[in-house]
Amino acid sequence: RKEVEQDPGPFNVPEGATVAFNCTYSNSASQSFFWYRQDCRKEPKLLMSAYSSGNEDGRFTAQLNRASQYISLLIRDSKLSDSATYLCVVIPNTGFQKLVFGTGTRLLVSP
Amino acid sequence: EPEVTQTPSHQVTQMGQEVILRCVPISNHLYFYWYRQILGQKVEFLVSFYNNEISEKSEIFDDQFSVERPDGSNFTLKIRSTKLEDSAMYFCASSDRGGRDEQFFGPGTRLTVL
Fold it and tell me: Fewest CB atoms within 10 A around its CB: which of A6, A40, A41, A101?
């Protein structure tokens, strides 16, 4: 089983739509959970952390469900500029420093 | 805003040659990392470096790879004898305090091995 699994998409949505991405992780003792954004051929950039209590930042909400080992990202009122690949990232308990990435979910927002 | 820089942006080399990829981390950061991303695949951890030594490395980071912080600003990744399968984007990252602290990524070096 992969450490971090994501639906690769692409998700094609119109501007203004709400879209949700999901991710599962295999190591129940994982420490920290993030969503990163990666534009084509660019470096990953931290979008936000995911917590059990939820984390909302403007149009973006990240949620962690430890019992189900599941992380979600909700984007409301999608913009054209949201088009990118969204990477689910976990810090496993085996090391406090390495980031373990999922393969990413591609989002395409159209006018 | 401080940023991680990497040189060169693109490196083309022949199989069996040595390459050195260079990174300048954010100046007050103490933890340094290398990741790679083969085209169309996920980002993979290679190595982390703190206090002038490797703190963690992946299975990918075999004897062909080495890292060094030769001075107070640069952080390098050396591949001793490149293979075709080393072709990838290599990202350097740095963080202030390690652990769960945000890792800031450089723009990457695209390595092409012919």
Answer: A40
Over residues A44-54, mean pLDDT: 95
Tell me the torsion sign for CA atoms B42, A29, A97, A63: positive
Residue of A33, A51, A37 whose CA lies nearest to A79: A37
- Which residues have C-beta within 8 Å of that of residue A9, sequence separation ≥ 6? A105, A106, A107
| Torsion angles phi and psi, residue A94, rounded to 5 | -75, -20
By the CB < 8 Å criterion, does A95 face chain B? yes
Contact at CB, B45 and A42, closer than 8 angstroms = no
Residue of B nearest to A48 (CA): B102
Between the two ends of chain A, the Cα-to-Cα distance in Å is 38
Contacts of A102 in chain B (CB under 8 A): 42
Residue range B42-77, pLDDT digits in tens: 999 999 999 899 999 999 999 999 999 988 789 999
Non-local CB neighbours of B73 within 8 Å, separated by 6+ positions: B24, B25, B27
pLDDT band, residue B37 (cuts 50/70/90): very high
Tokens found for residue A35: 């969503």
B102 touches chain A (CB under 8 A): yes
